[in-house]
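Escalation from tier 1.

The customer reports that the assembly of two entities below gives different structure tokens on two consecutive runs. Tier 1 could not reproduce it. I'm attaching the input and our single run for tier 2 to review.
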Amino acid sequence: MFGNPGMLLNRETSKPKKTSETLRRFGGYFKPYWFILLIAAGLIVFSTWTQVLAPDLTGQAVDCYLTPAVSGTSGQAGIAIPGQATSITSSNCWYDANAATLSTSDRVGGLLGLVLRLAGLFVLGSLATGLTFLAMAWAGQNVLKNIRVALFKHLQRLSLGYYSRHEVGDLMSRITNDSETIQQAISFALINVVSGILLIVWVGYNMLTKDLPYAIVSLIVLPFMLIVTSWFSGQARKAFRRSRIQMGNVNAELQQSITGVREVQAFNREDENIEAFKTTNASNRDANIKAVAWTSALGPTLEALGYVSIALVVGVGGIFMLNNGSLFGTTISLGLVITFLAYVQRLNMPIQQIGMLWATIQSAIAGAERIFGLLDEKPDIEDKPNALKLPAIKGEVVFNNVWAEYKKDEPVLRGVNFEAKAGQTIAIVGPTGAGKTTIINLIPRFYDVSGGSVTIDGHDVRDVTGSSLREQIGIVLQDSFLFSDTVMNNIRFGRPDASDEEVIAAAKLARADTLIERLPDKYKTVLGERGRGLSQGQRQLIAIARAALVDPRILILDEATSSVDTRTERLIQAALEKLLEGRTSFVVAHRLSTIKHADQILVLKDGGIVEQGTFQELLAVKGHFYDLYMSQFRRQEQGAETTVGATIGAGAVGEIAG
Amino acid sequence: MAVKPKKPARPKMNLAGLKRARLYLGHYPRIMVVAYGSLILATLAQLVVPTLVRNIIDTVTNGVIAQKILSAPAAFQPQIEKALNYSHQQVMDYGTDTSSKLIIASLLMVGFAVIKGIFTFLQNYNGERLSQSVAYDLRNDLFAKIQRLSFSYHDKNQTGQLMIRATDDVEKVRLFLGQGLIMTVSAIVLLVGALIILFVTNFALTLVVLPILPIAMVVFFIFGAVSQPLFFKVQVKLSALNTILQENMAGIKVVKAFSREQDQQVKFEQAATDLVKQQLMISRVFTFLFPLIFLISNLGQAVVLYAGGAQIINATLTLGEWQQFSLYLAFIFFPMAQLGMIITQMAQASASANRIFEILDAQSDVVDKPGAQSIPAIVGHVEFKNVSFSYPGSTTPVLSNVSFEAKPGQTVALLGATGSGKTSIINLVPRFYDPTQGQVLIDGHDLRDLTIDSLRRQIGIVLQETNLFTGTIRDNIAFGRTNATQAQVEAAAKAAAAHDFIITFPQGYDTSVGELGSTLSGGQKQRIAIARALLLDPRILILDDSTSSVDLVTEYKIQKALDQLMLNRTSLVIAQRISTVLNADLILVLEKGSIVARGTHEELMEESEIYAQIYQSQLVEDVNLDHEAATAMIGQEA
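Tier 1 run:
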């Protein structure tokens, strides 16, 4: 009703593949709300009934009270014409049996009664419509919530392997888009389509039973409307699909040119870029205009067809009435014409809506299908049915001929053996791709080994529950992930029951307290998304505090390779030294000091340990470690043990400016 | 592109932006005339239709009655005619050719409906064309502005924000200018037209329904006003929910590492419940308001049925006139409902328009001054004269009183801790920023007297972080010199040690960067950036000689490429490597924005304690010993 009906078409639509299965599953979520649905269904039937009845009553108003008036004589219905049994117009009045004998004022009174009844019907119908929406919203929103929660739980059970194969951004946009389409479908599309179809069928039935031939003539336009709607919508969707691709190009070009704006300016490319963008932008405009031609035509075409059906109802009805008011034996009255007129007008809206909303419902089913697909994704790593709770550990970690692979038959670890005694610091060194990260991923069982075993205090990590295992392991990653929450809550993340004092103590231990004290709201400062507003080094300090608060027996640490400013670097180093004390620690090492102080150094190459020992031992061998030391670590030898990497460009400029 | 949960901005009504956006419509006077002309014609045609409906119904009614009268015995006819208030002439008229009259009346109505349809199509289509064209202009203007705004602007504004301006905000303005504005005009024309016709055709009946109109108006506007903040709140809750989801996926490792799945589930469920509650708030309001809108219009029709029916019974109104009246009444309710919707749309569009013009009105800090000269071929003499600098909008000086001179072909190495002002110095040379005090001179010209284009064309820049652009590898190397030949591109790539890895790609230089995606390593990107700068053959070179974390052999290659690049050019280098410093003609040691020591390596080792310290602690010994690199290479291949 509001505006251009084509507006709804400009949306991502997709077709489901397994409609019936998806619907059955989706229906399963509605089961707890069957009672609400039953009520909603009853309400829909009731409100449709009021809509079907209203034109009938209007027709009765004409036939019972208005038509006799054309006789113009008061106190007498119609004029008795010799040779004719009835009044001068044919009448189908059933509403008021005495209508034929009413006086003028009685007829006005009777009309008032009918209008009041009609008004009452309108009120009840509206109320029913409103309540239907509420009931459906209640059931639908709860269903959507339940699906969301189920999905969230499931996503958490999926292993890291899944996340390494899928972009979080893609997953995120899929989930949000799909729940959005489901939301639209259940909040209004479903009701409108159901009640629309019900209305069309009911009105059609009513018309056909009242006067079959007249109804057929009146409804002849209906199939054309349906065809036009589905054909135009189909064309429009195709055209919009093309225009969305163009829009994607516009967005990509925008994104790039904004991200790379400094280089664009440095290389004097502004004019060329602007010209190139104009071309892309123009293709987008033209694709849109083409698509819009279809949607612009749909509304007016349906409207014109609607008027054609009005002309048919009145024109054909009139001609039949002129032919002695009958057609194939049935009687057409003025009231019937008015009733049919109201009926065909009432059909226009649902026909337009169903055409539009059908696509929404299809998209929603496709969306549900994708969400169920996600829910069906089997987690690679799950607790065994009889998994034990890992008791408090000392921290002895043994890798026993460990093989690991991310892709089938492409092993990243090939038979790794080592033993870390409780309290030892193990430094892992080696070139990129040698398998350092894989080793540390196996200890908290982020992935499973493909051969051999990883044991902690003699327990195979696969035999214990994931939570009892990970609760005793602390992890500090290179790019520390922080949540958009207060600093306090971020540190408290691993131990929600920790008191403020404990949090502050952990921050002090991690040397993060001075940094936090400088933040606008100190510990209550809410960090931006992913810790925005803090430098990488500062984020790592908070991550260290977070790990320190848990007081784990085993600590896993991925040292930052990228440049951090000197002062923060020193703080991190001091914090780590404190943290490593007395815990079994695994460090993917980039700092000379870490390596020097390690109890064991594992030198990895191509998925195997090629050398193993202390710093002095390994240097003496003059093998791989020696080469690595000469090329990578020796530069840290003198003075400060850090490389200060000042980056020019975007980051640095921002940092200095800020 | 990472999907960030959108932070919805609560729209406020400030129409200044919309008024300005409206001026863009003026770029397309022809489309506008067609669109609004069609609108007027379509609306007029629409206003005629109810009269045509009346015409048909009355033809039917009168025809039927006349036929009945005529079929009565002749003696009775005058009596009936008198009783029904018909003249004999009328009865004869109505009674003859009724069927053909009816057909003509019906066809007339269909004809008008078709005319109305055609003009509505023209109105819709041209309205959309108009709005797409305006969006095109707005986006072009935004893009051009964003491309030209100086660094200081981009320092302060995030890519995502700017993207939203050029996409979502433009779309909202477009929707309003295309659909909203046309709908408003057509709604008002229809409303006024229908009201006038109602008053003219049946003053008494119009007075009866008149009291309903203000009620309807109030309800429609309440609907607009109430629903908007509710939708806003839902957006807030939804984005809170999405943030949790997003963070739990992006941070899944942390969540798992700390075994916090349970907590997060509770948190998520809470947010989901909040969202449901908020959604149901909307549902409750809609349960009441939405049916009310239809109820009011239905009740209006009921009132007309009663009041009009009474008039019919008293023979002061015909059945056709009654139908006509109720159709016109629908023409009044419909536009009112539309206007209620448009108000909401307008509020959003105005907020968006204001944000768009905020960008378009932003002042670039660095612009060509009137009468700026194009700089001739640069010799390469760079001089800083008492330069002080602070970033726009900040009062903290980043550079204070910096003076130095680089003769053509010399290498100047910049040393100092993060924040000491190295980056600022190199940013001033291509005039990414202007100094707050003092002068930067190239070949004796103050940079501010030169056109920016001519200046930057002759300066090559290699940053540590490299952005590559859509297109082939070749396009990216020829980024600053689009007309370079394949031979020139390859020569540059060879000099930058990039050729070898480029030819391993499936389509070599024609491989599209997009297809490679993230398979290009930092080191490879860096070498393409070096080739890109080499191809320009600039007289002045600005670079960061640090290498990203790459393996030994690559690092060696990159360093060689960089050394090659610096040869015979005036180079300003943020120095990380000892060899750069050793070879530099001038070393500037910076601390807190001032030059604290200057000279050659030998001089500084003698004189400057700070330099010695930095030399010891911060510089990276390069793998410049050929045999060491060779050993490493052999080691790697083995």
